[in-house]
């Protein structure tokens, strides 16, 4: 599904497609005087180059057909004079990229690969990936405009003073702001108003369990479900004042006692309170008993059975039979200490390494102009929605809608299968921009869209993008983070199930310290200090 990859990580005001005006990529008179050392490149308009050139691009893909035959790229070649030789890889793209980097046998561009910060900095500082600052300034007016409008973008992309990749950008609040959902039909059936506090939520879940709200005469209700236990705990952080700067930086947020410092919030006493609350729900059978082995497939299968009372998953994943029974809560739940924030928010920069230019590229200027088009309104629409007139149309009020050919396909294909023929969007890590208007995934389903303004009011004023680490920091950090993740995952599960009593909390915190908690915070703090500058 088109929403799956965006669960992927993290808030700006609700943006419309008009943010791109002025750099739409429409044909203009070419400037023949704008030249490059390696090829004659027009600074504006089309073609991008006067004489045809070829670029070799290695790209990830999922269910799309051959990009060499995709209408988007065939039409774009006619406009630009740039032919692309596509080499495509599926789940093995990471392995293929590693081999190419190790053997120094490089394409001109690597696209739609989830490069880590570590890889970007390492290969950028080595010169394997081209530094993009000057290229962006001169040849990427669409992307440059986005950088100026949203300063969090260059803050996230800056790696030691340079940028080594083009990112996947999200300007959709409905995508970035996750929500909590509740079964409105069940609320009406048990005669309880919408809950606003954790205590009221607990009473609602108890009523869902005992009052047969699905009306089948069976005790088969699952008051609170999810795809795993973190889908439940993460939605409760704000009620305990945790994750107060978004969901993008692991186990740290801003220390409420010292805003210049970071807090390892998973060791905070408020985290203990949160786990005690979840433990109470679990002991009383108010959480899916199989939550520790659940996944998206089992969640969706149960969704069709009308057994869920509440969840925190994208609304359409509940399944078509019951998805419209759910609405977003009226507001995030208020906790026992009066906390009521919503930090379950993804960043504006979804993935950083969506498009890198390698040192073997003979035409970096033309390449930058080529990709910059997909950061314009016109280009991002084509990247996300396909072919205007065939797969999408523009309405009288300036919105974009999918055509009946997509939504009611005569060949019986679903939305993803149809669009895969026209757009490389599937699989994520795209060098483009998504908005509420040009993205049609689960995050922009009506239930989610309706809930966005309710939760947006409680989003912290600042949402941090992912902090960039130096190669040296990353080498230290990765091992520590892995050890901490294992300890946290195992221990929190034991606290929730009751296998580990809360009298052991202080001992648990001591184990976190021994596993490298302080080193984790120290590395993140250094990255945060650079991020602020």
Q: Can you give a write-up of this model?
A:
With 533 residues, the chain is α/β, with parallel strands linked by helices. It is 37% helix and 13% strand. The chain has 20 helices and 14 strands. The protein has a six-stranded mixed sheet with strand order 2-1-3-11-4-14, with helices on both faces. The chain has a four-stranded mixed sheet with strand order 6-9-5-10. Strands 7-8 form a two-stranded antiparallel ribbon. The protein is globular. It starts with 52 loop residues before the first strand and ends with a helix. The model is unreliable at 1-37 (pLDDT under 50).
Write the layout of secondary structure elements.
Elements: E1 53-60, H1 71-80, E2 82-89, H2 93-103, E3 109-115, H3 117-126, H4 133-139, H5 141-149, H6 152-157, E4 166-170, H7 173-176, E5 181-183, H8 184-190, H9 198-210, E6 222-224, H10 230-233, E7 252-255, E8 258-264, H11 269-283, H12 296-303, E9 308-311, E10 326-328, E11 349-357, H13 364-372, H14 377-385, E12 392-394, E13 400-402, H15 404-407, H16 415-419, E14 433-434, H17 446-456, H18 471-497, H19 505-515, H20 517-532
Parallel strand pairs: 1-2, 1-3, 4-14, 6-9
Antiparallel strand pairs: 3-11, 4-11, 5-9, 5-10, 7-8, 12-13
Helix pairs in contact: 11-18, 18-19, 18-20
């Amino acid at each position: 599904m088109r929403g799956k990859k965006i669960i992927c990580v993290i808030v700006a005001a609700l943006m419309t497609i008009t943010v791109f005006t002025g750099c739409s990529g429409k044909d203009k008179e070419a400037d023949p005087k704008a030249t490059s050392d390696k090829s004659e490149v027009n600074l504006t308009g089309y073609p991008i180059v006067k004489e045809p050139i070829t670029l070799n691009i290695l790209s990830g893909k999922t269910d799309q057909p051959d990009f060499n035959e995709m209408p988007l790229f065939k039409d774009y070649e006619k406009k630009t004079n740039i032919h692309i030789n596509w080499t495509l890889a599926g789940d093995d793209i990471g392995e293929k990229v590693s081999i190419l980097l190790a053997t120094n046998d490089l394409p001109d561009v690597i696209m739609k690969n989830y490069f880590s910060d570590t890889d970007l900095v390492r290969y950028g500082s080595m010169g394997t990936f081209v530094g993009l600052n000057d290229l962006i300034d001169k040849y990427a007016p669409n992307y440059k405009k986005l950088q100026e409008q949203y300063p969090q973008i260059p803050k996230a992309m800056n790696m030691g003073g340079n940028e080594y990749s083009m990112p996947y950008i999200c300007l959709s609040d409905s995508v970035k702001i996750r929500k909590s959902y509740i079964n409105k039909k069940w609320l009406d059936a048990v005669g309880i108003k919408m809950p606003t506090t954790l205590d009221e939520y607990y009473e609602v879940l108890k009523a869902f369990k005992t009052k047969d709200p699905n009306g089948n005469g069976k005790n088969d209700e699952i008051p609170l479900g999810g795809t795993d236990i973190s889908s439940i705990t993460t939605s409760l952080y704000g009620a305990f004042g945790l994750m107060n700067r978004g969901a993008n930086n692991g186990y740290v947020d801003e220390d409420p006692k010292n805003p210049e410092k970071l807090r390892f919030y998973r060791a905070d006493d408020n985290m203990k309170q949160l786990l005690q609350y979840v433990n109470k729900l679990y002991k009383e059978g108010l959480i899916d008993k199989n939550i520790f082995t659940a996944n998206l497939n089992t969640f969706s299968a149960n969704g069709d059975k009308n057994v869920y009372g509440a969840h925190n998953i994208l609304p359409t994943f509940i399944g078509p039979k019951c998805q419209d029974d759910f609405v977003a809560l009226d507001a995030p739940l208020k906790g026992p200490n009066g906390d009521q924030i919503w930090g379950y928010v993804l960043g504006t920069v979804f993935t950083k390494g969506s498009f890198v230019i390698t040192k073997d590229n003979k035409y970096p200027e033309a390449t930058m102009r080529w990709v910059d088009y997909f950061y314009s309104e016109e280009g991002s629409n084509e990247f996300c929605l396909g072919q205007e007139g065939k797969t999408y149309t523009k309405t009288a009020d300036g919105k974009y809608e999918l055509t009946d050919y997509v939504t009611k396909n005569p060949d019986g294909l679903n939305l993803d299968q149809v669009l895969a023929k026209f757009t490389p969007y599937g699989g994520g890590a795209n060098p483009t921009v998504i908005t509420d208007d040009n993205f049609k995934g689960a995050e922009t389903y009506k239930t989610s869209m309706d809930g966005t303004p309710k939760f947006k009011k409680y989003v912290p004023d600042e949402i941090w993008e992912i902090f960039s680490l130096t190669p040296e920091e990353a080498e230290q950090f990765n091992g520590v983070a892995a050890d901490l993740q294992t300890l946290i995952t195992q221990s929190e599960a034991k606290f929730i199930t009751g296998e580990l009593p809360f009298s052991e909390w202080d001992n648990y915190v001591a184990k976190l310290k021994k596993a490298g908690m302080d080193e984790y915070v120290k590395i993140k703090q250094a990255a945060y200090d650079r991020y602020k500058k």
